[in-house]
Amino acid sequence: MADDLKKGLEGVLVAESGLSSIDGDVGRLVYRGYTIEDLARGASYEEVAYLLWHGTLPDEEELAEFSDAMAAERDVDDAILETIRALVEADERPMAAMRTAVSMLSSSEPEPDADPADREASLRKGRRITAKIPTILAAFERYRQGEEPVDPDPSLGLAANFLYMMTGEEPDEVAAETFDQALILHADHGLNASTFTSMVIGSTMADIYSAVTGGIGALSGPLHGGANQDVMEVLIEIDESGLDPLEWVEQATEDGRRIPGFGHRVYSVKDPRAKILQERSRELAETGDSKWYDITTTIEDYLTDEKGLVEKGIAPNVDFYSGSVYYQLGIPIDMYTPIFAMSRSSGWIAHVLEYQEENRLIRPRARYTGPDERELAPLEER
Ligand SMILES: CC(=O)SCCNC(=O)CCNC(=O)[C@H](O)C(C)(C)COP(=O)(O)OP(=O)(O)OC[C@H]1O[C@@H](n2cnc3c(N)ncnc32)[C@H](O)[C@@H]1OP(=O)(O)O
Ligand SMILES: O=C([O-])CC(=O)C(=O)O
């Protein structure tokens, strides 16, 4: 057995996958053969979820059937809504509330006894989870605002319906399209930490609810999905400090601070999703407040041109521009990472189902560095 240690499993191949391919040297991302740019331009989140779960893009009839089926699954039980309300009253954060509520969804699962090896049943469960997460999150925000949840509108797509349930108002076309595109960009990304977490759970043949709940937990950390919230908080910190963004970023790098939204385990160049989101941020800035777009580009230019970070392979990742896009759509900052999870649930589910097709328990090992042999003294003599 090879004894070389790969900290953080960097570069270790653990599975084959037909879902997404990343070329980190040139900044290319593909879902099942389609470039992320083409999907962002020409598909909806539902089409992408279908692509990830079924392997091909749907035709019109398949899409209508799939979207209707998902829309019909959006309601959540009153007991879950009550739990969300209680979590809001306890001042719980939205990401943690969502983790709890998603775990609780299994209590209303209509096929609780289905064998986890039954792919079709797991897919139906996965579809229910992805359909219900927006309802959970929007209800959280409504309760937090002292309002009652808004019932889902089956005539709206997943993205527009989420914005509608959160605000009580149907979003305009720009907001709905921008948000849908953001969901597409976040849907899948190889064996990132949260997807791998879901796969590890799935590899024990645990159910899909456990796998998605685990994925949410892994995504919440600041080194992973939590960075999108951190980016926006930094932008606000800069704005409120009254400092020129250049001064702030100079000081931050001198202090050895990590800049959230920069760096990636796989990309050594700018993330292709960051380029798309940067463009959306620029477009929104044209009709709204250009401040956030200006600060982000100033930071990026400084780190690229002056600090040469990009030459060192540390470039903007997907989280760098998503925050300012969501901010301009009026979404509360602590909802950014839950929104990431809302989208990534389709990727987690796709990877678990794919891995389970030829399942093997994931079980690596650690090099033992503890003492070799110790004598056990009785309690009173220790
Ligand atoms: C959706 C996503 O999960 S995308 C990632 C979201 N996370 C962030 O944006 C948080 C900020 N970024 C980071 O912390 C890292 O870049 C990670 C965790 C994403 C990638 O980590 P790893 O691949 O393990 O790289 P690692 O942490 O070893 O960093 C490598 C080098 O780049 C530097 N570096 C990495 N990210 C940054 C950053 N954001 N700012 C400044 N320097 C950085 C490190 O200091 C390290 O330098 P050193 O070798 O001189 O010590
Ligand atoms: O791939 C990764 O390591 C992080 C991730 O989830 C993403 O960039 O979307």
From TrEMBL:
Protein name: Citrate synthase
UniProt record similarity statement: Belongs to the citrate synthase family.
Origin superkingdom: Archaea
NCBIfam families: Cit_synth_Halo_CitZ, cit_synth_II
Catalyses which reaction(s): oxaloacetate + acetyl-CoA + H2O = citrate + CoA + H(+)
Active site per database record: 264, 319
GO function term, MF aspect, one: citrate synthase activity
Keyword set, alphabetical order: Transferase, Tricarboxylic acid cycle
Pfam families for this protein: Citrate_synt
Disordered as annotated region, ranges: 103-124
